[in-house]
Design brief:
The chain is of the alpha/beta class. It folds into 2 domains: about 200 residues, D-Maltodextrin-Binding Protein, domain 2 (3-Layer(aba) Sandwich), CATH 3.40.190.10; about 200 residues, D-Maltodextrin-Binding Protein, domain 2 (3-Layer(aba) Sandwich), CATH 3.40.190. Helix content is about 50%, strand content about 10%. Strands 2-1-3-9-4 form a 5-stranded mixed β-sheet. It has a 4-stranded mixed β-sheet with strand order 6-7-5-8. Helix 3 links the parallel strand 1 and strand 2. Helix 20 packs antiparallel against helix 21. The radius of gyration is 22 Å and the shape is globular. The termini are far apart. The N terminus is likely disordered.
Length: about 450
């Protein structure tokens, strides 16, 4: 099912339901952080679910970016005006788990059981749900938009420069030089720099970000990413900048335009940019490849880690509203919805059935490379270093890492100085989180 089909169904349903019937429906408020095309599809899911039955009304409401949405939900809960469902990005997991300990969160596994809605965690891809389970393996939130960093490349520019897509970091540097010589202004770039160049780089090479199994094993965790491997990696990128091979384009996805307009030919960021690229890029062929490997650190990659967000359910509402919430979650997990979401956006399907449906539909043959994210996540059984991270206050800590890395790119600090400062400042926030949640 394509996006336009969902939206058409939504429009038809909105005209078919009278105001009186709509008022009789059980209302469920769903706050999300999906803007643009992603927001249209997200709202379309809610509208299609509403059209399927007449008992529940999912109100899909955009609340800004990830940080804004999470902050507003916390404030709303304190005021007793919380939504039923809130979309929270992966680095907010520890904060939401602490909220669950304090009775603010309704764990998804418990929600589905209480509502009597069929739910089998084995249906979901292990690499996706392992990030969001408690120590007993119970799923706390529903994976919705799950992604992982990949190497986006300008296939046309590579062909014109006569170079192959790199598989190692040494090859990235050499490819960047060849691309630069052939007229590409800033051959290499990336977005979400903490996620792509520290968190995922470490997982890809099976290196710890911190102690206590990257925070999964306890609140006493301390950061260790100021190690020689990461320092060398950040220093390498800084040297590429000095050579004119790398240009920093900002946080999050701010540098997207640099890839779309052809100024950058290698761009590491989320697999979820596929839908937008397919729509916006007209002047060249593009593709996605696996992340490069530092062969001084490992002979083979371990696995990449999940990004994106999940749907958390907040306490404080009536039982019928939670029944509707559980039924909506069941709808979102159906293969048809997940396969469409995956194919339209580049987010990975959260269930095995959706992945298999995409294969049956011939999607990966029609769009080669679009299964790169799934392959990266499933390369190997995750280790304590590569299953993700669960550090408290990590939303704020990512801002610290951003500040320190920006000091490296501007030449104000060395990689060693910046990483040492990021670890020291980050550990201070970890201790504050531990003190308030022990």
């Amino acid at each position: 099912m394509q996006t336009k089909t969902i939206l058409a169904a939504a429009l038809m349903s909105s005209t078919a339901v009278t105001p009186v019937v709509a008022q009789e429906r059980t209302q469920v408020n769903f706050w999300h952080a999906m803007g643009g095309q992603l927001g249209e599809i997200t709202d379309g899911f809610a509208e299609e679910f509403n059209a399927r039955q007449d008992a529940c009304q999912i109100n899909s409401i955009y609340k800004g970016n990830y940080t804004e949405t999470m902050t507003q939900a916390i404030a709303a809960f304190r005021a007793g005006e919380q939504p039923h469902i809130v979309q929270v990005f992966e680095v907010g997991t520890a904060t939401m788990m602490a909220a669950e300990d304090n009775g603010a969160v309704y764990p998804v596994h418990q929600l589905m059981e209480d509502a009597g809605v069929a739910f089998d965690e084995s249906d979901y891809l292990p690499a996706v749900i392992s990030y969001y389970t408690d120590t007993d393996g119970n799923l706390l939130s529903l994976p919705f938009n799950s992604s992982t960093p990949v190497m986006w490349y300008n296939a046309t520019a590579f062909e014109e420069a006569g170079v192959e897509v790199p598989t190692t970091w040494d090859e990235v540097v050499e490819a960047a030089r060849a691309l630069k010589a052939n007229g590409v202004e800033a051959p290499f770039g990336f977005g979400w720099q903490s996620w792509t160049q520290i968190e995922t780089f470490s997982a890809w090479h099976d290196l710890p970000l911190g102690t206590e199994e990257n925070g999964f094993a306890g609140l006493e965790a301390e950061f260790t990413f100021n190690n020689d491997a990461v320092e060398t990696h950040i220093a390498r990128i800084a040297e590429m900048g000095e050579e004119g091979l790398f240009s920093y384009g900002g946080r999050r996805g701010d540098s997207r335009s640099m890839f779309v307009n052809g100024d950058t030919a290698m761009w590491i960021n989320s697999s979820a940019y596929y839908g937008g690229f397919a729509s916006d890029i007209e002047d060249f062929e593009f593709g996605q490849a696996m992340l490069p490997l530092d062969t001084d650190l490992a002979e083979e990659p371990q696995n990449s880690i999940i990004g994106g967000a999940t749907l958390w359910v907040l306490q404080g509402h009536e039982s019928p509203e939670y029944t509707c919430t559980a039924e909506f979650f069941s709808f979102l997990s159906e293969p048809e919805q997940q396969a469409m979401w995956h194919q339209e956006t580049g987010y990975v399907p959260i269930t095995t059935a959706a992945y298999e449906l995409s294969q049956e539909q011939g999607f990966y043959e029609e769009a080669p490379g679009t299964d790169t994210a799934i392959k990266q996540l499933s390369l190997n059984e995750p280790t304590p270093n590569s299953k993700g991270l669960r550090f408290g206050n990590f939303v704020q800590i990512r801002d610290i890492i951003n500040e320190e890395l920006e000091a490296v790119w501007s030449g104000d600090k060395s990689a060693e100085e910046a990483l040492d400062a990021a670890v020291e400042r980050g550990n201070d926030l970890l201790r504050r989180f531990e003190a308030s949640n022990s």
